[in-house]
Write a structure and sequence with these properties.
Elements (H helix, E strand, L loop, with lengths): L1 H31 L3 E8 L9 H7 L1 H6 L1 E8 L5 E5 H4 L2 E7 L5 E10 L4 E6 L20 E8 L2 E13 L5 E4 L10 E3 L5 E9 L15 E6 H18 L1 E2 L2 E5 L7 E6 L4 H5 L6 E5 L2 E2 L3 H10 L5 E8 L2 E8 L1 E2 L3 H6 L26 H29 L1
Antiparallel strand pairs: 1-2, 1-4, 2-3, 3-6, 4-5, 5-6, 7-8, 7-10, 8-9, 9-12, 10-11, 11-12, 13-20, 14-15, 16-17, 16-18, 18-19
Helix pairs in contact: 1-9
């Protein structure tokens, strides 16, 4: 009876270890994936099959498929800044970003860093869940990492691996499954903090298939620490060039497609000009406004300090008001510049912050480390019990 119990004990321990690891990975993905988005880039010439009928569509199918690229991006601010891979967007006519909640937004191209191969784009959305950054000072060969992104076009595919090497130029080499569509996918540490972005696979390429062909699951990762200076500078330029009115609009039910003011920021440009909640905006700077998105595009084009005529319908009466465009609220930069002495646990909501794990140890990190240590002890105990059972 004792031997039977002894033989079963390692299996029970092993199951406990597996369940604990599964739980840890599940919590990490749950906390991190709201910041992971799918990026679709529609290239020039992708509409070549339009107007050719059914047979024309079939004839151009292969070409059309090559014109649409799918990749992954990362939300880095609550007001819609997204970081992705630059090559994905090259020569794109349109860029769409699909969020974790199922909604899709047309993105605005901003800037790219050709040295590191990353690009910054912007969507017109607020209240998003940005990623939590971590400077990977404590990363070393053997550190666990998780990649969340696309896998053959399927979003939020998860791959778990380890850091296999850190190259002299700072690139991190990881051993994890990286399928087509995963370029631009964020890489997370054990605390659900984003440490970098997948820039490409490492492997041997051959022109002809062979049974002796070698295959590599390694990928190269650019760290976010190297990207932050570019990101901050691009955001500075964006806020300096784009205007803000300080209103929230919805589609007017009585005048389909036109934006109706739902909310005004107190002492904002719109509030100071005399705009009121319930006003339906029909013209902005002399141009007809036929949708909330059109209004957003027109406002974005205005430089801060410009004075713009805005025509509204107020209870059946047309009124024209002068609105002085103000600089946008620097939400993203404020989030990036926030400092704190403690790293909150991944489940808490907090602004983007680059933290040095070697310097800052939060209670959640200590708890995580204790769980990892406990798992390692259990694995050693399993091996000792198995060896003891074999000897007996």
């Amino acid at each position: 009876m004792f031997l039977l119990l002894l033989g079963a004990t390692p299996e029970l321990f092993a199951q406990g270890v597996i369940f604990a690891l599964e739980k840890e990975i599940g919590e990490l993905v749950y906390n991190a994936k709201p910041a992971v988005v799918t990026v679709l880039a529609l290239k020039e010439g992708s509409s070549s099959a339009e107007g050719k009928g059914l047979f024309g569509l079939f004839g151009e199918r292969e070409e059309a498929e090559k014109e649409c690229k799918v990749g992954t991006g990362l939300i880095i601010s609550s007001d819609g800044f997204v970081l992705t891979k630059e090559s994905l967007l090259r020569n794109a006519r349109f860029i769409d970003v699909a969020l974790d909640n199922g909604t899709s937004h047309r993105a605005e191209w901003m800037e790219c860093d050709s040295v590191r191969g990353v690009a910054l784009i912007k969507i017109s959305a607020t209240g998003l869940s940005p990623a939590h950054f971590s400077v990977p000072d404590a990363l070393h060969a053997g550190s666990w990492v998780t990649v969340i992104g696309n896998s053959m076009g399927v979003p939020h595919a998860v791959s778990v691996g380890v850091v296999s090497a850190i190259q002299p130029d700072g690139l991190v080499q990881i051993s994890a499954n990286v399928d087509p569509g995963s370029n631009g996918s964020p890489v997370f540490d054990v605390h659900a903090h984003a440490i970098g972005m997948v820039m490409g696979r490492v492997g041997l390429e051959t022109s002809a298939p062979s049974s002796s062909e070698y295959f590599s699951n390694s990928a190269l990762v650019h760290t976010f620490a190297d990207m932050l200076p570019f990101v901050r500078a691009a955001m500075e330029r964006y806020y300096a060039m784009h205007g803000w009115v300080g209103i929230t609009v919805i589609t007017d039910a009585s005048e389909p497609s036109r934006p109706r003011i739902l909310k005004l920021i107190e002492n904002g440009p719109g509030h100071k000009s005399g705009l009121q909640v319930g006003d339906t905006i029909t013209h902005f700077d002399g141009k007809e406004v036929d949708s909330p998105s059109t209004l957003g595009e027109l406002v974005n084009q205005m430089r801060p300090g410009s004075v713009v005529p805005v025509k509204v319908n107020r209870m059946g009466q047309e009124i024209t008001l002068e609105v002085r465009i103000a600089p946008r609220i620097r939400v993203a930069l404020d989030e990036l510049d926030v400092t704190t002495s403690v790293v909150p646990p991944p489940s808490e909501s907090f602004p983007i912050k680059a933290v040095k794990r070697a310097e800052i140890r939060s209670e959640s990190q200590l708890q995580m480390q204790r769980r990892i240590d406990a798992l390692e002890r259990e694995i050693r105990e399993i091996k000792e019990l198995q060896n003891s059972y074999k000897r007996n």
